[in-house]
Structure formats: structure tokens, C-alpha cells
Design a protein that fits this description.
It contains 21 helices and three strands. By secondary structure, it is an all-alpha fold.
């Protein structure tokens, strides 16, 4: 009888705990919608009110997470015999609780308000090509995030603490190991590509392409890949992003008359994020079991669809007729091989990360990673960012930005206070290759299906092995579950060496 009573009490405690977790999740999701609206649809003059609204929700979220009752429930449940799924919910909530309880509410509110107010400042600075306009705001955000990291653990590297906001389980050492491996092996590959005499059809998309027609084409590609319009939408934003939950996952892109391929690949990239979000279990909405597994895994989904599908020859066999239908005068005579080569060109003058080719993209990540790490550690002053940025571009990419707008002001992340985010782009690309290689092993004729426009089995494979698990597993355990092995960069490096070796006729690859 006593044992049954204890079990019932534990069940009641977990039920009450789960309701608090769901309430916390819904407050966070409401803030996400306000953030989406601010970047996509809000009138320019709405910032003063919106910053207060988002700050209020952020403060409420912090209060709900750090309440004494939440702490007591976590303590009680950690001593109970829970199912694996229940234990995962407790583990994820405990991780967030432990971090949040160490940070004063007033600091959380100040970070939220400052980052909300920072976005229009960044937009103005970028438009005016003037880093000095943004520098005081960036300096304030760097200082606030240093304080944030110090409250969580004053004995540890502050950048490592911030990195764990986006990837809590792989560890900064693993991240640096992978980035070092990419630098070591990709730089000579890029050099070999640039020395190659191969004549690729890189002028296939030259000229101006009507942006309204580009939007129609973006909708075509989402239709082709299987985007669920009943639970999503397409809009434009200064910086493409995806946002939402398993019932409402929206994508944004941006259009440039002279860069139709860039807009198309950005759309496919954001589709990858959205299809992951939409694949999360609906019955677990509001709990960690219905939430994505942090940014390395999230980015693996976008990079998988963008690079392994969207830049593949098989995909263009399917999609080129649609492009030719939208732009008959521009691409009527283009072959699949022409478009495939254009989609995989390694650019000589590659300044913008979101428009970068698949290969040199990771040098962009290295620049941002090293700069933000040094900013947070106090090894670099904000006023020196433009010069250091330009120096690193020259060192890693052989080019030097002429303006701040195409240099250190090109990304929105620092205006959000997102220090520690950038490494996950490369970590995700690495995981994308590992996952896709195993999907190819399990799905007979996967690229034949891509040629036919049949993506059901790939969707199903990703849902079964990644999406449906939400945050039940840690990142390393999820990789083990999906692939049967540890996280590794080997698949990615084999993939790019083989692909670009063939494209550019490289004897040593």
C-alpha cells in the first residue's frame, strides 16, 4: 500500500511538473512568433513596444523556469523511477533550470530588451555601411553575455558556456577539433580547385531575374520537396530563417535580381529546418520530447536538404524544367550539367556567407567563430572587429571586403546576442553528410527517387531516425541511434573531396 501511494504521488508530481513545462514552452513559443513578426511584417515604428513585449515574455519565462516550485519538483523527480521519456524531460528541464537560476532576472530582461532594440540598429548600420553605428550596441551585448556566462560558471571559459546554449552535449573541444580538421583539409582542396583548369558553366544564371517570378519559383521548389503549406508559409526577411513548431513552421528567404540560385538554395535550406520542426511528434508538443535537439542537429537537416539534395545532379534533372518554365528566355538552352556545375561553383570572390559555395562556406564560419570567441574572452576589442575580420578573410579566403556591409555587418546573429551559434553551422554540415550516407545505405536508389521527385522515403527515414526523437537523446546519443557510430567528420570530408575532385578534374582527390 505504501509503495502504491508513493508511486501515485510521484505520478501526480510528474503530471503537475509537465503542466509547468508546457506552460513555459508556450510562453517561449509566443515570444518566437513576436520575433518572427518583428523581422517579417511589423511596421518599422513598432520596435519600442515590441522590445517591451518580448522582454516581458522573456522575464515571465525566466520566472516560470526558476521558480522554487519548479526546483522542488525537479529534486523530487530525480529520485523517482521514471520512464526513459520522463527522465529525458526532467534532464532537459534540469539543464535549463540550473543555468537559468544562476542568472539574475534583471540581467535576462536587459539582454532581451537590448537584443530586441539591437536589430534595427544593425539594419541601419548595414544599410549605411557604417560599423561605428552598431559598435556601441555590440559592445553592450558582448558585456551582457560575458556577465551571463560568468553567473553560470565563473570558473569556466565564458565562450564555452555560451556555446552550450546552442550545443550542450558535443562540447567545445569536439567543435574545435572538427573545425581544425576542416581548416587543415579544406584549405588545400580549395587551393587545388582554384588552380584547376576545369571550365564549368558558371555563367548559367547570369543576368537579371524578376524577383516576383523568383518567389513563384521558391514556392515551386517547396512544393517539389513536400513542404506542408497547411502548417507553414513563405515570406521574405533581411536574413533568411525558419521559425515555429510542429504545427506551424514558417520559412523566409530573400531575393536578389542577380542571384536567383542563391535565393533558391536559401529556400531549400530553410525548408530543411522547417521539415525537421514539422516532423517533431505532435503529441509531445510543449515538452522537450516535442522540441528539436539543439542547433547541430537542426543545421544538419537544412544542410542535408540544401547540399545533398538541392545541389545534386539528380535534383536538377527533376527541377530544371520548372526553372525553364519560369525563366524561358534565360535558361531555355541550359542543360542539367550546366545548372549542376553552376550550383556547385567554388567562387573566387566569395564575401557573403549565406551566398557562399558549399566548400568555402566553412572558412566563413571559422572567421566568425574565432572573432566572437575572442570578443567574449576579452582578447579582442569591438572597435577592432572590422580590421580583424578583413584580415582573416584575406588569410582564409584570399579576398578582402571593401565595406562593412559586405564584411562584419553581413550577419544578424550578433545583434541577437547569439554568441556561440556560428560553429553549429559547420558541425551541422558534418552531421548532414554522416546522416545522408546512412540514408543512402538504407534507401535503395535514393538518388533515383530524387530524380523522380519522390522524397517520401527520405522524409520517412529522417523522421524515424532524427525528427521523432525530439530531445529525448543527447546529441551524441542521437547520432549513435541514427547511424550506429560516433559523430565524425570523415563522411563530410570524403563527400566534398569526391564531389569537387570530379567537378574540377583534380587528380589527387
Amino acid at each position: 500500500m505504501a509503495s502504491e501511494a508513493a508511486t501515485d504521488e510521484a505520478s501526480e508530481t510528474y503530471s503537475a511538473f509537465l503542466q509547468k513545462v508546457k506552460r513555459l514552452s508556450n510562453v517561449s513559443n509566443a515570444g518566437m512568433v513576436l520575433g518572427w513578426d518583428q523581422e517579417v511584417m511589423m511596421p518599422e515604428g513598432g520596435t519600442p513596444a515590441r522590445s517591451q513585449q518580448r522582454s516581458a515574455l522573456s522575464t515571465l519565462s525566466h520566472e516560470l523556469l526558476t521558480s522554487d516550485e519548479m526546483g522542488e519538483m525537479l529534486d523530487e523527480l530525480e529520485d523517482e523511477d521514471l520512464t526513459d521519456e520522463q527522465a529525458a524531460v526532467v534532464r532537459e528541464t534540469r539543464r535549463r533550470y540550473d543555468r537559468a537560476t544562476k542568472v539574475p532576472e534583471e540581467l535576462v530582461e536587459e539582454i532581451s530588451q537590448t537584443s530586441s532594440e539591437a536589430m534595427p540598429v544593425w539594419e541601419e548600420a548595414k544599410e549605411e555601411d557604417n560599423f561605428e553605428t552598431f559598435a556601441p550596441t555590440l559592445e553592450k551585448l558582448v558585456e551582457l553575455k560575458r556577465q551571463y556566462a560568468e553567473h553560470i560558471d565563473p570558473e569556466r571559459d565564458p565562450y564555452e558556456v555560451l556555446f552550450e546554449e546552442y550545443e550542450p552535449y558535443l562540447g567545445i573541444e569536439k567543435a574545435e577539433e572538427v573545425l581544425d580538421q576542416l581548416r587543415e583539409e579544406l584549405v588545400p582542396l580549395v587551393d587545388a580547385v582554384r588552380e584547376s583548369d576545369a571550365d564549368l558553366a558558371v555563367d548559367t544564371f547570369e543576368g537579371e531575374f524578376d524577383v516576383d517570378t523568383q518567389e513563384e519559383l521558391a514556392r515551386d521548389v517547396l512544393d517539389t520537396l513536400g513542404y506542408d503549406w497547411e502548417h507553414g508559409r513563405l515570406d521574405t526577411a533581411p536574413h533568411p530563417f525558419s521559425s515555429g513548431n510542429q504545427f506551424d513552421a514558417r520559412v523566409t528567404t530573400r531575393f536578389n535580381p542577380e542571384e536567383p540560385l542563391g535565393a533558391l538554395m536559401a529556400t531549400v535550406h530553410e525548408f530543411g529546418h522547417a521539415t525537421y520542426t514539422l516532423g517533431l511528434p505532435r503529441e509531445q508538443y510543449g515538452t522537450p520530447l516535442g522540441e528539436s535537439r539543439d542547433m547541430t542537429v537542426h543545421e544538419s537537416q537544412s544542410r542535408l536538404w540544401e547540399n545533398h539534395v538541392g545541389r545534386s545532379e539528380a535534383f536538377w534533372e527533376r527541377f530544371l524544367p520548372k526553372v525553364q518554365e519560369r525563366f524561358p528566355e534565360k535558361l531555355e538552352g541550359a542543360s542539367v550539367e550546366d545548372v549542376y556545375e553552376a550550383a556547385n561553383e567554388v567562387y573566387e570572390n566569395n564575401l557573403i556567407r549565406v551566398e557562399a559555395d558549399e566548400l568555402t562556406y566553412h572558412m566563413h564560419i571559422l572567421v566568425r567563430f574565432e572573432i566572437e570567441r575572442d570578443l567574449i574572452r576579452g582578447d579582442l576589442d569591438v572597435e577592432d572587429v572590422p580590421e580583424v575580420w578583413n584580415d582573416k578573410y584575406e588569410e582564409y579566403l584570399g579576398i578582402r571586403p571593401d565595406t562593412d556591409a559586405e564584411g562584419c555587418l553581413q550577419d544578424i546573429h550578433w545583434s541577437h546576442g547569439d554568441f556561440g551559434y556560428f560553429p553549429t553551422y559547420s558541425l551541422g554540415s558534418v552531421l548532414a553528410s554522416q546522416l545522408f550516407a546512412h540514408a543512402e545505405d538504407d534507401i535503395e536508389g535514393l538518388y533515383d527517387q530524387v530524380r523522380e521527385g519522390d522524397f517520401d522515403e527520405l522524409h520517412d527515414w529522417l523522421t524515424e531516425n532524427v525528427h521523432q526523437h525530439g530531445s529525448q537523446y543527447t546529441t551524441d546519443d542521437l547520432v549513435q541511434e541514427a547511424t550506429g557510430e560516433e559523430y565524425t567528420a570523415d563522411y563530410f570530408l570524403d563527400y566534398v573531396k569526391r564531389k569537387y575532385g570530379e567537378l574540377y578534374d583534380l587528380d589527387d582527390y
